[in-house]
Amino acid sequence: MNPQSAFRNPKSKEERSMSNEIWVFAEQQDGKVRKVAFELLSACAEFSKKTGQEVAAILLGSGLQEAVKSLTPFADKIYCVEDPTLASYTSDTYLTNMAPVVRECQPSMLLGGATSTGKDLFPRLAMHLQSGYAPDCTGLTIGENGCLVAKRPLFGGKIFAEVAFSEANPQMATVRNNTFLVNSSLSKAAKIVSFAAKTDPSPKKKIIGLEKASGARLDITEADIVVAAGRGIKGPQHFKLMEDLAEVLSASVGTTRAVVDEGWRDVKDQIGKSGKNISAKLYMAFGISGAIHHVLGIGTCKTVVAVDTDPNALIFNYADYAIVGDLFQIVPALTEELKRVLAADK
Amino acid sequence: MAFDIHYDTKWEGDAVEIYVLVKQVPDPEAIVKVKSDTELDIENKYFTSFFDEIGIEAGLQLKAKFGGKVTVLTVDNRRVDALRRGISMGADEAIQIADPALGGSDPFTTARLIASYLKDKPLDLILAGRQAMDDDAGIVGPAVAELLGLPHVNAVVELNIEDPKKEAKVTREVEGGKEVLSCALPALFTCQKGLNIPRIPQVMNVMKAMKAQIKKIDLAALGLSAGEVGPSSAKVKIQKYLPPPKRPPVKVIKEDFPDNVKTLVKLLKEEAKVI
Lengths: 346, 275
Fold this sequence. Notes:
The structure holds 2 protein chains of 2 kinds. By secondary structure, chain A is α/β, with parallel strands linked by helices. Helix content of chain A is about 25%, strand content about 25%.
């Protein structure tokens, strides 16, 4: 047998058996659905024009009225599993409750955000369902006969790959934030399909605490705007400048490996190869030289601004807009100018 | 040499068995280019995936606390350097799963191979990196846990064990904070930066590790056939490699301060439309 014959050929017109639904994992926290789920549902609405399939969300949790309400215009169906044991995510409880629903309904696709939960759950669920899975994607397209082609970075973003899936359903992928835009003009009226929860009398894992990060800032992977400083900021005390700028833009503050290794900032804010990949609409880098470790993490940002005193800094090769200048002069002035301009908009 | 010190420990239970999944990958500085639709040109500059080294270090610290054995394991037909790195850091044993039939296998098959090897071994803990720094997939760890029926926690930044035959307290990063979990052992944890700083092995130990014996396991030893691995078993396939998308050339704002700041804000608002 030709080993590749089991693969979907997105270019062939040959008919293949296809389920009539595509699904999005509507990840929620404290009853609020993450933005990336709406982004994916919006993308699926486009896909469904091509494939004629219905778009469904699968939602697990406890106290889901608000989540259901927010999802209703975005999906044709919402599969709901509601139980107090599902209030917080653990891979065990989610897998136990999701796998049977997926098995029963046989969607052809199951998409989720490339969040800490998505990246924890999807590989395990894919192994369980014997499905194919493409992690941390930065693009999804539908081939001519309705199967999924996922685009994902390899080697930290030095290379991209188009990934095709075997015949096994569902085709699974996690997708980075901001890969698709939310289409707020959708006006579907989702039908709710409830499934009874399965509970494990002796769970192997228990959440015993949650340490909320200080401040109300979004994680750098979720924020639309990220402002970051590198070693050019000279010390942890000066990050106040970045916090002030972030405040005006409702942005999150990121940083580089060098700064984290100095102990100036927490590793959760590190952008780059050994930190996080961000896909912000706007990324602004101050006093960052642009080591390969760092720029690999910003490859999918839409607009990049770089400010550095060194006119030969590598970061300028990866930027859309550049100012050769001192961040200690530029950042406060930029904060004031943005305040003025954004206030004028209101 | 931290790993040669026998800590004064109150632990009097059975010795602890720890496995660490490791992989040798192109160094972040290595040049990687598209050669053809299905082939890459990778500069011959490799290192042990950074998150895997964090896993090795975590295993060695637990061994220092409880006694027992740390085994490093890789699935690779060619490169065993990650195993030697593990040995030079202080691991006791090294296992290489290799077989000519493995070429073209996907991460799920890799997980199946590892699980087949581990399924009848006594073990308390499996550690892996958060993801390998080549395919950046993060699949093998959770998939091994699934196949072995063990709980797993991803991207662990703190790990505390009082009784290695009972449970671990682990902290994982989540959006907007950190989550603390208690997890029954045996379990599999993938390791994230921040958990520890991997030790740098001494030259003497690096030399010793070059000669260390590596146990080679092939498909037959795992009770698997060639049809169960390689491209025919793969659930995903890379159909095309692409270079990263190119950014338009940078626009340098050359005006003097503070006009440059005003221009930048104007461009962000009117041209890029991002604020």
